[in-house]
Amino acid sequence: KNQVEQSPQSLIILEGKNCTLQCNYTVSPFSNLRWYKQDTGRGPVSLTIMTFSENTKSNGRYTATLDADTKQSSLHITASQLSDSASYICVVREASGAGSYQLTFGKGTKLSVIP
Amino acid sequence: EAGVAQSPRYKIIEKRQSVAFWCNPISGHATLYWYQQILGQGPKLLIQFQNNGVVDDSQLPKDRFSAERLKGVDSTLKIQPAKLEDSAVYLCASSLNGGKNTGELFFGEGSRLTVL
């Protein structure tokens, strides 16, 4: 059964500090992995996508990594800001034929950035 | 470009009552999804439409939940009768043709249901 596990479940950090969120998956065959940011009371928004051939990708202060061999991804946030307070959800897409695919969602990591 | 529109944003009902949620996807997006997100958890797929046909409804509690997407655009999700455990946020999402893109979903802001 495809699974996506995220850790930690929640995290509190001081403004300006860095943090790293983890995502482990068992989805196979693998197509891609996305990190979504979900602000309180809003729908998730895609931050970045990682494909099989990509190891690292940056989007401003967000840097995602992927190790397809160990089936692990991380999201590193640098110099955190209060606006980074949100839930971060890891979503893995399974590659399948006939043009269809399945998405497996993690439960998310709730990040709180405090002044 | 307009995003995914959902209504109502909030709904409070008593158990055994019925409720309906509406979703208008991004123009041109063939695939539409309804997700249930219980507090503290990730979204769980309820149903996926490709145009106006159902692709996956394996996790939809069909004894009480129903969904339709007439004319391949707007969609409604209905719960009848509601149970306490249905309290959740119902997220609608859309994407380009399901099999020809990277799988990015564009979500609406959700409809928060409280069942008393």
Give a written overview of the molecule.
The complex is a heterodimer of chains A (115) and B (116). Chain A is 0% helix and 58% strand. In chain B, strands 2, 4, 5, 6, 9, 10 and 11 form a 7-stranded mixed β-sheet that branches. In chain B, strands 1-3-8-7 form a 4-stranded antiparallel β-sheet, with no helix packed on it. At the A-B interface, β4, β5 and β9 of A face loops of B.
Secondary-structure element sequence of chain A? EEEEEEEEEEE
Mean pLDDT of chain A: 93
**Main sheet properties of chain A:** 6 strands, mixed
Beta content of chain A comes to: over 45%
Query: So what's the oligomer here?
Result: heterodimer
The count of strands of chain B amounts to 11
Mean pLDDT of chain B equals 92
Q: Identify the overall geometry of chain B.
A: globular
Over all CA atoms, what is the radius of gyration of chain B? Answer: 13 Å
Number of helices of chain A: 0
- Which regions of chain B contain 5 or more consecutive residues with pLDDT less than 50? none
Helical coverage of chain B, percent range: under 10%
Q: Give the SSE order of chain B as H and E letters.
A: EEEEEEEEEEE
User: Low-confidence parts of chain A lasting 5 or more residues at pLDDT below 50?
Assistant: none
Please state the CA-atom Rg of chain A, rounded to the nearest Å: 14 Å
